[in-house]
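Bug: token stream looks shifted between consecutive jobs. Job 1:
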Amino acid sequence: MLNGKKHRILFVCMGNICRSPTAEGVARALAERDGVHGVFEFDSAGTHGYHVGSAPDARTRKAAEQRGYDLSPLRARQVNPYDFVRFDRILAMDRDNLGLLKQACPEEHQGKLGLFLEFGTRFPEDEVPDPYYGGEEGFELVLDLIEDAAQGLITRLGKG
């Protein structure tokens, strides 16, 4: 924890209906499983407002449910200026969204920005691919990458 406060983590993708809500739901479940849920606060948002108020994509929810993650309570929202102040780390799913975050983020908060897969240990990928226009296997790959990076994040930050 940071000075007795929770680690506040924001996961970001483009529309907040596939990758970032998956990261939020998986990270929350893994922190709960590992007994460190009180150390973290997780949220997700999109760089674009296309789907504000929508539940995660049905294919995303189905793939997550098959692995025991419930994403149904989540609703899409867009990154807002206060997010740069509120969160300790703002982790993008890919370089395009990281670039958009860097453009919007005040200079004093730039150090909070990064790629989520920097916390991964099992895969060579450094970006979570957008599964939206692909098939079922894309959603499975997203879950594989996110489970790995979420566990790495929890392991690295949950101890301190």
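Job 2, same session, no restart:
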Amino acid sequence: MLIDNKKYDYLFSNHRPQTIEGIYIFGKNDKYLINQNYASISDIENRIWSDLYIRLELLLDQYASKEYLLGIQSLPIPRDRFPDFNAISPIIKDSTGWTLLPVAGFLDEELFFEVNAQQKFPVTDIIRKSPRFDNKYRDRNIQNDEGYTPEPDIFHDIQAHTPFLMDHKFAEFLADVGKLGHEIILDKRKLGPELVAHNLKRLQNFAWWTYEFGLLKNNGDSDNIRKKSNDINYEIYGAGIISSYDETNNIIKCAKGESKRSKLLPFDIEEAVMTRYDYSDIQDRYYVIDSMDSLYETYYKNKDLFFYEG
């Protein structure tokens, strides 16, 4: 993998363990494309989905961002059974041009950014805690519990990410991040593999602290689409938070002053791109943007941050 090159890692702050060791990682030369066999979904898998969904449903209605709530209301994502990719993908395609791309698991950075640049979002058909997940990793010890698995599962991909693909501005932004990642990897500027790896990590940091684990200020204008008013100063837009009950509760407790486990920091793009993260635990910080529009504006004004030349 390109990011295995660590020459410039000393420039980053918040060095954390990158705990994806042991999971299957698919690249261009692997058989990564699959078809969802919807008829084969078991009752156990449907029950796991339902338990995860219902446990988070009311929390997200109260604390998730407007973009998320409007998106999930417009998609046929069931609360009591596995989602059918073929029912969801055409609706997103008609709305923003994106399609769902069923894949066998975790895609390497080169492939992930390439498919995003093509407005394709990779989604897995396997869910945490299921016998299928256990069987996939029967020859190795991979964390697999309700709160976390290092391999993104269908709940994270569909329940958390796809609603945002219904928002035109977000969909355009995400495609551009994919194009930027692909541009870094192609290295038309002839920076060399060490700087390519470093710049790619900068982009991964940016993605992590924004559309995976980002917060935005609550200005109160989305309470009219909630069952219960948001009683904290933040809204959640990061999919890594949205798909995690523990992470969502951590945000709420920190925002209400009931916990000091994590810091809630104003978003600074220069700081975010130079800050590493941890796959395997509750985040120790979250960056807060003023609005989604401010995120897009800051990103487009600072794309040079992702072409560090040494």
